[in-house]
Design brief:
By secondary structure, the protein is mainly β. It is built from 1 helix and 8 strands; from the N terminus they run ββββαββββ. Strands 1-2-3-4-6-7 form a 6-stranded antiparallel beta sheet, with no helix packed on it. The two termini are 35 Å apart.
């Protein structure tokens, strides 16, 4: 959205948002001992329901003002946020360690990285001419990341259920 209250001041606001939800994301079924892909009737068999959800948004604002002597001041500020929540089926990794009790458990693995970024730029610029021009300002950038993940273990009474649903966060 562009706002121009007068010829010397412009304000530009921008926003972008994306969300995706992908069930059974990135799965290649394999044998945990041989690491070979599984084909046939057991292909696609997962103990835990897997998924990938991600969201991303960017908010940005630009303000520019031209003074009477044609010097311009420009400020550009942005904020972005990326978050993902993935549930993977780690049953074939952990189940063999439990021996004969292994088939009673499933092991959904939760991974949830988040990144937040804030930037600010401020500039003062001389008018454009053929003799001498100058530009000065500062730039600030701060990015924070958080990675959380855990493995859940659940006991099934009797037998392991196909595509069991993990608890929502």
């Amino acid at each position: 959205m562009l706002i121009e209250p007068d010829q010397d001041l412009t304000i530009d606001l921008i926003g972008i948002y994306d969300f995706s939800n992908t069930p059974n994301a990135g799965i290649i079924d394999g044998n945990a001992q041989t690491l070979q892909p599984i084909y046939g009737q057991y292909a696609g068999y997962n103990f835990a329901n897997t998924r990938l959800q991600s969201s991303y948004y960017v908010l940005e604002g630009n303000v520019s003002y031209r003074f009477e002597d044609s010097i311009t001041a420009t400020s550009s500020t942005s904020f972005s946020h990326f978050a993902a929540h993935e549930t993977s089926d780690d049953t074939t990794i952990f189940q063999p360690a439990l021996g004969s009790l292994g088939p009673l458990f499933d092991f959904p693995g939760i991974v949830a990285p988040t990144t937040k970024t804030v930037t600010e730029e401020f500039r003062l610029a001389s008018p454009s001419n053929d003799q001498f021009e100058w530009l000065g300002g500062f730039f600030y950038d701060h990015e924070g990341q958080q990675l959380s993940g855990r493995h859940q273990r659940r006991l099934y009474r009797g037998h392991a259920a196909r595509c069991a649903r993990p608890r929502r966060q």
